[in-house]
Fold each of these.
Amino acid sequence: MTSDPEPDDRPRRGRFAPSPTGQLHFGSLLAATGSYLQAKANGGEWLLRIEDIDPPREVPGAALAQIETLRIFGMMPDRPIDWQSRFSARHHAALAELLASGQAFYCGCTRRDLPENGIYPGTCRDGIPAGRQARSIRLKTIDQDIGFADAIQGENRQNPAYDCGDFIIRRADGLIAYQLAVVVDDAAAGVSEITRGADLIESTGRQIHVYRCLGLEPPRYAHLPLVVDDDGRKLSKSDADDPVHHQRPQTALRLVLRALGHEPPAGVRSLESIWRWALDHWEIERVPKGPVSIRVHPRQQ
Ligand code: GLU
């Protein structure tokens, strides 16, 4: 197994990086709040990056609505907001570097060419078979465990070669894949710790692999508990889940903090004092692994 050294000497910097696929719901508000507190309560900076590089999934107006919701909740980034679509030059430079070093390759497979388990069998690793056209670009994986100490979920090991095989970094529609863009942009922004929803923990091994292929230092990770509805289903921005902007921010923030294991005392009422309390009391060790359920239609208490 390979693990990276603890990157403790960098300035502490966290971020929230929503895709503009809908309004923020309780799951994304919890990710925003957890990443904000983990950065700010430890004296770091908190950045906001809108991951708008997948136009087919984008909902018009969603990015501005997300930014507005964060503002209403009192979460203001320490630097100007980043729009991922503006960083296409560096995404393509990284792609070119990975191709030039032989770590990435063109692939002519469609989804139908893959086995049922979806794990890429390496078909085009050494060249596209005759009769097929280049479609996507994949990053070669290495058959070894990648270990990381997640501040909430604990020790983790993943082996991308076994879990998914060589994975796509430029899609067949020409768009840069999330796994590449997120690493390039977090590294460029000097993000030293990524606090995000547990639904993304399975991507972490792949992303650490991308960091290593590009000669970059991976950040520390903390994966926050997944928020599920009353039936145990994951909330999703693209479903019709009740957006948090329909709630009073104090009420919604309290519910989120309670789910994060940091319920403020009843007397702490205003938004400002809830934040002050949370910043003073934040200890990532108290955050549950999850999943957690948040009543989506809270009644005023
Ligand atoms: N843009 C991703 C999303 O909204 C999150 C990226 C990340 O936090 O790594 O699900």
Note: DSSP finds eight helices and 13 strands in the chain.
Amino acid sequence: MNILVTGGAGYIGTHTCVELLNHGHDVVIVDNFVNSEKESIKRVEEITNKKIKFYEIDILNEKALDLVFKSNKIDAVIHFAGLKAVGESVEFPLKYYNNNITGSIVLFETMKKHNVKNIVFSSSATVYGMNNISPLTEDMPLSTTNPYGTTKMFIERILTDLYNSDNEWSIAILRYFNPIGAHPSGKIGENPKGIPNNLMPFITQVAVGKREKLSVFGNDYNTHDGTGVRDYIHVVDLAKGHLKALEYTMNTNKVEIVNLGTGKGYSVLDIIKAFEEGNNLSIPYEISERRPGDIATCFANTLKAKKILHWETKNTLLDMCKDSWRWQSNNPNGY
Ligand code: NAD
Ligand code: UDP
């Protein structure tokens, strides 16, 4: 199949392109490189020994997007393009609503115009908000604490309404938990611009000497060691989940929401320990204040993914720590 991957130059997009290409699919990437580098696409080509067609365009650009669909016979879309920094979304909500929601609407309109009605969409566990108790199931009530999360919740709703208006659409909405790790080649990985917001890239930047120490945001949560517990998933497992979701959309006409996680929760201190032991390194850290908006515990119920996508994770926490470090140590300054 010929798959259009929006945001395909980014962290999860590149790993998914590797899996798509390795499974015999063709890939067309659309990305404006607002949070990525062209080099990442070259690396995917190196890993897979295949050529990728890419368009440097903004999904908000209706005309340019239309031309992509006119020039390529697209079978399905995997939609990663979006801004994802929670703090920035609080500061610039309109930028987030415009880029993520309007951009998605332009994409869906263009798909409809060209009669491409299969889509896999990147949502997030952030839509479960502060009030649900883990393990989180897909039918729990949603709430959000920041504009980024609200964009995901709205796009989920827009896709569901779109399906309800025309059930020729086939839609998989994937709620990711915490993707970390990197391709085992060490050629592609997470490459945050500026100071990392997320735990693992911060740890790897401390390990490589770019940051002095990690701040652990709070040790007074109601968890086994007081630090926040999350469901960390290897990005390659996550990428493989997209192939399964794509297959699912090709064989059904439904809208389904599915968690992609491991179902296991690890604390910040568990992650530091695993990273230190797995890589024989020491990570200096200090305990600091809680980060506003953080919850104590968040991990997935993974039954639906097993049942309908026939997918589950394979990589261990140790694999995630080793692969994250291989990527960072091979590429201390990113791409
Ligand atoms: P990323 O920033 O690495 O990748 C997103 C890509 O989209 C980037 O290459 C960026 O340049 C591109 N992009 C953004 N706006 C665009 C626009 N208007 N037009 C064209 N391209 C645009 O992020 P990622 O970690 O790979 O995340 C991919 C998707 O998964 C995002 O939608 C994100 O919100 C979602 N998600 C990520 C996480 C995570 O922790 N990484 C968790 C849950 C959900
Ligand atoms: N965290 C931390 N220090 C950091 C970044 C994150 O202690 O520099 C903690 C954070 O409070 C949370 C966990 O690590 O408990 C995962 O945070 P991340 O931002 O990676 O994911 P999210 O909170 O969005 O699930």
Note: The longest strand covers residues 118-124.
